[in-house]
User: What shape does this take?
Amino acid sequence: MASKMITLVTGNENKLQEIVKIMGNSLPFKLVSQDLDLPEYQGEERYIIESKCKAALDTINGPVIVEDTSLCFNAMGGLPGPYIKWFLKELGPNGLYRMLSGWTDKSAKAVCSVAYSDGRDIHVFRGVVDGNIVDPRGPTDFGWDPCFQPLGYTQTYAQMDKTLKNQISHRFLAFNYLKQYLLNQYASDN
Assistant: This one.
């Protein structure tokens, strides 16, 4: 497996850098990225991530990793959820904050779903961080980070040092589960 490559499907350079830092360099394979225009599936989180993984497998000849992120407002029953990309594109972080102006409950969940497949089974890993939607603070160059403040912290994701964020984020949790799975698979194969 040392010469094995796994393709991470993303065209987002910020996301790629964050994932590479989370995964570290102790894995017995090379992580490469490829930007694919995968369909934007609609439905529940698990359906979306598994469908994205199957679509990536149809294009990439080899093991793949796909990721999908949700931002779930508790007051809105979990919306915008997996559709956060479109809400963010239209409203920006400030508009996301304003969406909750009619509710006292500003709590939310940041969710990262990651799917890995070597071409046989699809394995899904999920990381969830509870927090609150706040008036945006910090740099606005990475999604909804300026308006999400994890519980127990006084800073938004955007204000945090990247090292700290990469140790507590929803993406860290999901990719750390994947990392442990891959290391266990490698150990059992050798």
